[in-house]
Amino acid sequence: MTPSFSTLGLHRALLPAFLMAGLFTTQGLAQNEAPGDTTSTAADSVKSPFIPTLGALDALVDPAGLDYRTFLWSDIRSLDDSFKYEPGVFLRDLGGPGLTNQIMVDGVDGRGLAFMLDGRPLRNPVTGTVNPYEIPIEAVDHLDVRRLASFSASTGGTSGLINIRTRQFSTNRPITKIRFIQGPYEHLLTDAFYTQNIFRDFNLQFGVQRQARDDRFVNSTYDSWIIRSAMRYNVSERWNISFSDLYRRWTVGMNNGIDVDSTRARGLNPFSDAEAIVLAANASERRTQRDVTLSAVGLLLPDTALATQVHGYFTTAEREYTDPTGATSSRFDRYAYEVQGVILHQIVKTGQLNGFAGLQLEHRIAGLGPAGVHTNTMSAWYADATYEIAGFLRPGAAVRGEKNDASTHLSWGVRTSVIATPRIVLNAEYSRIGRHPTLQEQNWNLYRFYGTPNLLEQHERMFLAVEFYGGPASIQVYTSDRRIENALIFRALSPSERFPAVVLDVLPNLRTRQIAGRLSLRLWHFEAKGGLTWTETTAGGSGISLHPKFILTGEIAYRDTLFDGALDARFGFQSRFASRHTGVRYVPSHDLYTENSGRVLNTFSTLDLFGVFRIGDAFVTLAWENPLDREYMTVYPYPAMGRNIRVGVNWVFLD
Fold first, then answer.
1. Residues 511, 481: contact at Cβ < 8 Å?
2. pTM of this structure
3. Run of H or E including 240
4. pLDDT above 70 for 18
């Protein structure tokens, strides 16, 4: 039984914020002078704060198209949608909104991704993952994605970094935004957002997202609320302070997927909504989480590029999985945790040198049901630097020293970029990064060690890439070779059972090789892009097909202004192909993905049609997903969505 945590810690976290907000209000009303109004004349453009580096890791950010404008014109509904067609990335979908989808990067699952929200960590300390549905896409300005492992070495990741930068405003004119999407099975998503400077240089943001869906299969209803608020006060041109509060609550029927064997034994189709037999007809899950962050950014030195950031953050969360029959219960049915942390982050940009350095301290307490209450303290120092030599050579390095309770580890990486010509860039890196076990891995009750008992994963990675830019075309090709010591893989102990026990295998040597490429082309009003990913994973000389060996993605779109400028439109199609593989299986009672032993996911290809039409300040979206009605799964035994139509509208009101 997970103990209920007191809310005293939350009250203590909120009290200083409210006191400071009151102090800022008094100061703001008393000011005689203020910087000029930064309100943009555009109806829906991000307003530039006085110090835009709040939440940034360094002064150089390349969102690579993963920004708010792109989201508007591509009908992206959630964070995981933005990665669905990225080469080197494989998105596993449980077939319904809100469920814990999995993003794999460079052959490594979500435990290796460093997820951050405006520079503060976001990962669940129990499972080590983040559900992409937890962050409303309407709150996102852009995604700072770093695929180089040497960069993620400094931020605690092993396969990459995703820093979610939220939208920042400074406007005296009130902005209201409404987003509405209706999809199959009465799926409704409504997002309302409001922002305005409530007095000089003090901006307030508030947003609510409501999402619900009826049963597709038996016991698959979904209902969620996400409430977000933020205050940012520009004390001066050299000092900004912000406070944000992100609350989410959701409940979902957890049918554990389809009982494929029983359904087929009766001559029925497991992909049919009416015929499929579910594994758990009464199980359900409830989650709540709250992330509170108090941040400050200041220009303490004369150079405006040398920004200093301080983040104080607090998270409280609770998860409860219930199965009245007891058939699918586990020791992780219920857990709760609190996280308290502080980060001091210094951005450095002086001439040819660009980078950052910082200190982090984090304390965690978790109630893990039968495993009891566990506390954990992590402290770390980190640095990352890139130096430009003669305009064509950019060597860089990253280092992180981390102490997790009594365990210490040093992660590091080196990299270099060679700008051979203005159109050709070569990149190379080598890194050695350690990942301490999650609280769930530390407290698992069934292990299989194939070497010396050790739960510290150690990743060694080599990476080479070539990038070519020529007029309307661009090509990127890269290859990576990753070796993991003490690789932690969850596996079914008896794959033939309907609800098998799960064992944590600790493999002394796991190797993942990957080759990926991307081609982008813009010609006249047409935009085309495609990606290819080849991945091979071996352990002890034998193959492990956790990941499809081949993944192909593509998109062709046409964009133009029609009807004498009255309609701005972009429409086209997207496609994805994945080869045959065993993949993974999601176990709701454990809240984790395990190797899908004994099962095979067949080769599949998908086709989706989309259109985005701008009329004034409104964006109208129309999508026809899977018009060929392909039957496939990316996670066993969760059938992907069949043929369906989705419509939506994204509307801005500017007074």
1. yes
2. 0.88
3. strand 239-253
4. no
